[in-house]
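Hi R.,

Here's the chain you asked about this morning:
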Amino acid sequence: MRIIGCGTGRCGTMSLAKLIDGQDDWLCTHEMRPILPWKIDRVLARDRIKYFNDHDRVADVASYYLPYVEMMFEEIDDLKVICLERDEDKVVRSFINKVANTDPSRNHWTDHDGEVWTKDPIWDQAFPNYEIDLDTGVAEIKEELIRRYWNEYHEQSIWLSKHYIDFEVFGIDSLNSKQGQQNIFDFLEIEAPNFNVGVKENKLVTK
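And the predicted structure, written out as tokens:
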């Protein structure tokens, strides 16, 4: 069995990784390096597919897996994919605060020259790249892009859940109760699980 976890980010992916990693005989990483760029890189994808196929009871959780899901279902043996989802407004606020720790702030969701926003050579490539019109306003543009990202991620994950029996979407609240975690373990076919109710590995910035 292999597991891939995904979600927009700021939605509990690190906590999910900790939960899976706490299961007997399982190894789960979070955002395994090198990261996979949102624009599909087949060379890096092949290396990641090989890693999964070469190991049993391994998992990785990261936002950037979504574009690769169909390819990985085709080429990874015995794969389950779990997608976490959090309320749109909370994700937007959390991202806005998270990328505000540079001056100027970062904006992962569009290609730019580094004048208006700080370039991030690692994470800019891990998100979709949208065209923008700066006349709208810098702050408004970034929020609009994050909302577009959330909605497209939601639509694609729902589509995948309808077309692949081994892909399922869970709300972030599933991490906060024993029954919610049991539902996750049932989907992942993990027996005699180790519960960690309310697990929080990465503080979600919401202010």
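The helical segments are 13-21, 42-54, 69-75, 88-98, 138-163, 178-188.

Let me know if you need anything else.
M.
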